[in-house]
Amino acid sequence: MHFEKDHIYHVYNRSNETVFHCKDNYLFFTQKIRKLIYPVCDIIAWCLMPNHFHFLISANEKSVNSTMEKHRPALQLLPKNLGTLLSSYTKAINKSFNRKGKLFAHNTEAKQITHQGNNYLENCFYYIHQNPLKADLIKKLEDWEYSSFPDFAGLRNGTLCNKELAYEIINYDKENFYEQSYEVIDEKCIRGFYY
């Protein structure tokens, strides 16, 4: 993964098994996000699902800084911290469930979506929040507490997202945010979030 300053990325990873088994797992992972990811980028939106996660982030100066490690001098801070997040979470789950090996079956992907056009960024923002609804985990978006939707809907005072930057770059309709969050997103556009 390589990040460029002031570019927007859809960052995601999926497992072939359950990653978050209970509320404590989600909260532990969220604490790791706050410690490792929040300080080195601007989080625009996020969602944790039972077997995968999504972030919409804006890379900043800290994201692209080199870690200055002797054995990996060109490694940027954001990819390093994403790796640390996943490896430390995997170790905790392995210990908790007496299991071994990788928890995430794939490498974390970061799809740059800054200049895609056609409301691509806005659609990705809404798509990330719609994940639990599309997976039939909930009946209403506000019922999923492991995403940034409640923060943008004014139902929670979460501080993980840079809401001002989100509004600036996405320019979503604050007055109609809730209703617009339920609008159907074209499947072709969704495929573009990944490939």
Q: What does this 3D model show about the protein?
A:
This protein has 195 residues and is α+β, with helices and mostly antiparallel strands. The protein has one domain: Alpha-Beta Plaits (2-Layer Sandwich), CATH 3.30.70.1290. 39% of the residues lie in helices and 14% in strands. It has eight helices and four strands. It has helices at 23-36, 61-64, 77-97, 120-134, 149-152, 163-170, 177-180, 187-192, and strands at 8-14, 41-49, 52-59, 109-112. The longest helix is centred in the middle third of the chain and has 21 residues, at 77-97.
Short structural summary:
This protein is α+β, with helices and mostly antiparallel strands and 195 residues long. The chain has eight helices and four strands; from the N terminus they run E-H-E-E-H-H-E-H-H-H-H-H. It has one domain (8-192): Transposase IS200-like (Alpha-Beta Plaits, 2-Layer Sandwich).
